[in-house]
Amino acid sequence: MRGITSLGRAGVLGMNARNLDFIAEYNKRALYPLVDDKITTKELAIEAGVTVPELYGVIEFTGQWEQFVDIANKRQSFVAKPAKGSGGGGIMVIGGVAKGGLRKMSGAIIPWQDVRFQLNNLLSGMYSMGGSSDSVLIEERLKPHSIFKDLAFGGVPDVRVIVFRGVPVMAMLRLPTAESDGKANLHMGGIGAGIDLATGVTTRGVQHNELVEHHPDFETEVTGFEVPGWDEILELSARLGAHIGLGYVGVDIVIDEVKGPTLLELNARPGIAIQTANLRGLVPLLEPIHALDSIPDDPIARVAMAKANWRGQPLEPFQIGTLADASD
User: Fold this and answer.
1) Which end of the chain is more exposed for a tag (fewer CB within 10 A), N or C?
2) For residues 297 and 299, what is the distance between their CA atoms, to the nearest angstrom?
3) Alpha carbon of 19 to those of 66, 124, 128, 209, 276: distances in Å?
4) Where do you find CATH 3.30.470.20 in the chain?
């Protein structure tokens, strides 16, 4: 595989190797729309028996402003995001409706004229891949598990899991901060906490690629935190990774207070910053799975394989049954 041996003993997966050896080789371009369009992703997740946020409505044209306002008034709390957006850009997370506009999770009010302007930007494709016109999903605002009350500022944390050939290989917990405006986005100032894949316990935290021990808004330790429902998260990720047909994919999951682990979105081009959060390279975790002739059909068996792989144990005993390779 190109780029694997050149990355040295650290085993860090570079952007070029990610693009050539994994995305290009394992992800058929014809399948990209399945994850690039969040409406399609939601439908596929439901097919796979995975919990998703409730969809309140879809805005496709600027002339649907009154429909948007009606949904806002009815639901009060919701998320509005581009159907084909990437990187968290343009998403509006709304905690309530005020007389003069919509209330953000921070308590700040977005005036109605600014909301309308932002909605038009979303529809124009300003935040969408390729820049083409887009539609806007209005969906349920998930409520984070109460265990996160001192780890998530003004928003919803999520777990990013990298899944290769249907096997989870690395994960991190993304925590919103005041700086990130309540969004679990590392580029905006959120925290990424590496997770021990075998136990579901956070091992270290980074913000702007710098090591952090405490959440800046709560002074709560970000290491040693046990992510609730960890085996369920891994199973959900393994199931979706195989069902979607992409061999290398990022699965983003929110742990809702009522729904439990719930799919947020899928990413066919997951970033490589997860290695910094874990202080561990992806290459030594990807190579053993790449070398296997077959992968188990059962997602529970793939979770067991993931944990063994994380611990550096041999994977050959798991080669019972087959899973269609996304590159075939």
Assistant:
1) C
2) 6
3) 43, 28, 20, 22, 18
4) 5-51+145-318
Residue 2, CA atoms < 13 Å, CB-side half-sphere: 11
- Kindly state the DSSP code that residue 22 receives in the 8-state scheme: I
Sheet with 202-207: list strands edge to edge. 210-212, 202-207, 191-195, 167-175, 158-164, 248-256, 260-267
Q: Are strands 109-111 and 136-139 parallel, antiparallel or unpaired?
A: unpaired
What is the dotted CATH code of the domain comprising 55-139? 3.30.1490
Average pLDDT (123-141) is 90
Under the banding of pLDDT at 50, 70 and 90, the label for residue 138 is very high
Mean pLDDT along residues 284-308: 94
Q: Which residue has the higher pLDDT, 85 or 86?
A: 85
Residues counted in the chain: 328
Is the model's pTM score more than 0.85? yes
- The backbone torsions φ and ψ at residue 214, rounded to the nearest 5 degrees and listed phi first, read -130, 150
Q: What pLDDT, on a 0 to 100 scale, did the predictor assign at position 261?
A: 95
Per-residue pLDDT band for 8 (boundaries 50, 70, 90) equals low
Whether 213 and 205 have beta carbons less than 8 Å apart is answered as yes
